[in-house]
């Protein structure tokens, strides 16, 4: 197709880690192991919550949904990345690139919304325990989960339609290992590109900051309520139910801030690619580990579910 003096791009080349030719095999093995551990960790959490009746509570329902969103998020990006690390040509069609962007943003923002819902759940449990069963009823929990997925889908649709409504007239080399928004916007042409880039950036940052603010307010009330508990044991028990969630929030938003709030000073494309690992591979890898190790109730249930038959004397 032709538009003016430019040919419209029909496929993109994901440059990715081809700038590190001697390290591609090492990256492949490292990312494959991290991906398998991510899948295994989330599946173990889901299986444990499913099998243990004592974990059939809103907090663990949200945790299961969070695990599903992480599995789907990594499924959209990492298998393609692993295949590209072993191939010579890293072409991806226009439609496949748009699909990858849509699903990655959908599952990524669903993850953020679910973390916000989990913060609200801890706020209700600690600050309004007498109203917990009413506010976090099965119907209420279902609505919160459903709206998280709807919100993520809307974000994915808005971002993808805005970006792929632009014209891409070449070159077609995306300096990233996935169809990420900033490097794609650099390939677009037309007078409306700066407006779209600004608008999409504001939408994404506003959604992330909104979620972060709600979580911050939840924990501000939680800390205030915990400090009013007279016994040290009671304070420790109350805070221990929030420790794993709070740690994941710090990791999630810490790495997200590196991407969205990094200075716009000139930097190497290789550095951008390496920074992309933090939120696409490292964050999903750490999340199930944190929840498994920092949540005493879940850790005990995992031992009971998976290790009771192998080491019965230790359970």
TrEMBL record:
Determine the domain of life of the protein's source. Eukaryota
Q: Where are the transmembrane segments?
A: 25-47, 59-82, 102-120, 141-164, 195-227, 239-261, 273-293
- The segment(s) forming the G-protein coupled receptors family 1 profile domain are 41-291
Please indicate if the UniProt record lists Transmembrane helix as a keyword. yes
Alphabetical list of SUPFAM superfamilies matching this protein = Family A G protein-coupled receptor-like
Q: Say where the protein is mainly found.
A: membrane
- Tagged with keyword Transferase: no
Q: Which UniProt keywords apply?
A: Cell membrane, Disulfide bond, G-protein coupled receptor, Membrane, Olfaction, Receptor, Sensory transduction, Transducer, Transmembrane, Transmembrane helix
- Give GO cellular component annotations, separated by semicolons: plasma membrane
Q: InterPro entries this protein is in?
A: GPCR_Rhodpsn, GPCR_Rhodpsn_7TM, Olfact_rcpt
An annotated Gene Ontology molecular function: G protein-coupled receptor activity
Concerning CDD domains, the annotation shows: 7tmA_OR10A-like
Q: Where in the cell is it found?
A: Cell membrane
Task performed by this protein: Putative odorant or sperm cell receptor.
Listed name of the protein: Olfactory receptor 10H1 isoform X2
The organism's lineage? Eukaryota, Metazoa, Chordata, Craniata, Vertebrata
Which gene codes for it?
LOC103677172
């Amino acid at each position: 197709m032709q538009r003016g003096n430019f040919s419209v791009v029909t496929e993109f080349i994901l440059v990715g880690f081809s700038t590190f030719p001697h390290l591609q095999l090492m990256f492949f093995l490292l990312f494959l192991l991290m991906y398998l551990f991510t899948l295994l960790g989330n599946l173990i959490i889901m299986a444990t919550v499913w099998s243990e009746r004592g974990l059939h509570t809103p907090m663990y329902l949200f945790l299961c949904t969070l695990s599903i969103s992480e599995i789907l998020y990594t499924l959209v990006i990492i298998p393609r990345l692993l295949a590209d690390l072993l191939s010579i040509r890293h072409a991806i069609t226009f439609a496949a690139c748009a699909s990858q962007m849509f699903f990655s943003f959908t599952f990524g923002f669903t993850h953020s919304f679910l973390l916000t819902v989990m913060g609200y759940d801890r706020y209700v449990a600690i600050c309004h325990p007498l109203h917990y069963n009413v506010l976090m009823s099965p119907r209420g929990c279902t609505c919160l989960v459903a709206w998280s997925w709807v919100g993520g889908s809307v974000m994915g649709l808005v971002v993808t339609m805005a970006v792929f409504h632009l014209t891409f007239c070449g070159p077609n080399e995306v300096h990233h290992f996935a169809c990420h928004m900033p490097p794609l916007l650099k390939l677009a042409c037309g007078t409306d590109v700066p407006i779209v880039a600004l608008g999409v950036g504001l939408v994404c940052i506003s959604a992330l900051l909104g979620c972060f603010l709600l979580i911050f307010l939840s924990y501000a009330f939680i800390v205030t309520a915990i400090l009013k508990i007279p016994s040290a044991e009671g304070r420790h028990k109350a805070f221990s139910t929030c420790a794993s969630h709070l740690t994941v929030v710090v990791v999630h938003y810490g790495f997200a801030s590196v991407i969205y709030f990094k200075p716009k000073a000139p930097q190497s494309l290789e550095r951008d690619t390496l920074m992309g690992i933090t939120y696409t591979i490292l964050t999903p890898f750490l999340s199930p580990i944190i929840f498994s190790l920092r949540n005493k109730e879940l850790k005990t249930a995992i031992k009971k579910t998976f290790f009771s038959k192998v080491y019965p004397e230790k359970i």
